[in-house]
Amino acid sequence: MKIAAAHEKGPFKVVVPVGGSDYVGDGESRKAILRILWVYGYLSGSSLGYRGALKLVHGKYGDVVPTAKVYLLLNEASKDNPLVELIWEAARGLWRLYGDGVKTALLLAYKLYERALSLERDYGLRPSTILEGYSAAYRVYVETLEELAGRSPRLDCATAARALLTGSQASGILEPLLCRALERYKASGCGKPFSEVVGFERIEGGSLSDSTLVEGVVVRKRLSRPGMPRLKVGPLRVAVVDQKLYVDLRYEGYNFVASDPEAALRLGEELSRSHLWAVEKLSQLGVGLLVDVKGLEAGLEEELERRGVLVLRRIPPEKARLIATASGARLLSRLQDASPGDVGVIDRLEERAFGDRYYTILEARGGCVSTIVIRGPWYAVDTAYEEARMAARGLEAYAADPRSLPGGGAPEVEAALRIREKALRAGGKKRLAMEAFAEAIEVIPSTLARHSALKPHEALATLEALHAQGRWAAGVNEYEKRVDEDLAARGILDPYPIRRAAAEVGVSLAMTLLRVTGISVHRRGAHLREIREPHR
Fold first, then answer.
1. At what angle do helices 298-306 and 261-273 cross, to 10 degrees?
2. If you ran DSSP here, which 8-state letter would residue 189 be given?
3. What is the pTM of this model?
4. Which residues pair with 8 in a beta bridge?
5. How far from each other are the two terminal CA atoms of the chain, in whole angstroms?
């Protein structure tokens, strides 16, 4: 058989035989994917669960801190290889939406891809047969998750936060703070997502137990000058302006010669008068606090201070949006067109010292915005900050859908049992693919059993026997290091939306990689054997 085309692009090599539609992936490419997935699968598996091992990751100052969050490790990894980029994009999408589930997804992807290669090597299955069997098994997997979610009790915030912060050293401290922020969010009836109305501020110094919740926004700025008493004022009308209120000499056409003092004086007067209209506009609106994003002239700031208007200048856009949401103001891109309805109100403005630095706190007690101030030593504060942000995304999913699933790998054992029953009815080579899928998803309870100092095979056999008797919530109890017959009754639960998303991402990633490498197992034709030989 003649070769019509051999394309080499990136790390993949695709061979198209004449008169056929068989795509044969380069063996080296498949081995590269397997190696990459093995590394990420190992990191995910060894960190999975309550007793998972911590990993070391570099902080922002080059310090090394322990964490159980694999996403932080992925964030530091090199992503030059397109295979790594594909895996990274899948993990990042899951993290952005839910803040959790990355370890489960990567571990599933690794085992599913590994089992697919075994089916190719040992049984000669076509890629279409493997994908067909995986798709049928995945449908059973999803149906099982849906059914168990209907049986399981609804989550409360504390249980959801504890599940999202599994492995975190600051879990006991962050859990009540996140739940208090979520309670304020629900009581306010805010229409924005929870992760967009909760802010985080990390401050080195003190201990993690000094972390606190502020009903408003915390800004790393000081309004008063050094040596002056700290400010603490009552209700203020707030204008949040995302507009340049200064003259940029580089682009405004000014020619200024430093040796001409009179020209310098004239320029200074002109610049001082250039935005005096803003003072009049803010006075008409009754503004007591101006939150500036892009900067303003020093003369304009001085004139506002003379008139009793406080100024927070050069505030990061993320903080400015939080202030606008907390006060009910609108982010103004043109102050000239502002109306009284575009101005918000805060209950109190206060300067507070955290350690040796001063922060401005804008409190809005009736709003939905909260800020969690995370304090602690340098080696812990960065990790706790990232873990809190990730947990906030997961709590957003919990607020939308409070359904739960039993933990300890119980859903995977139940799904594997049902997949094997359906595989017997399917028969043929499709049955092999479905059974391989069932074996792959059982890596979750096996890994948790290993971390609990149990023998994985014995624990898995015990779980399969319990599920065959109808004990659908039986799983590995990591807290007590044993197999438990009813984890739902003991309150060991996981948020359903996150578990469902992790399963979807892991299976989709494995199937995408199978399609990309174009695995083919035809044993006829010498050229096919030659291409397959390197990876055997």
1. 50
2. T
3. 0.77
4. 13
5. 23
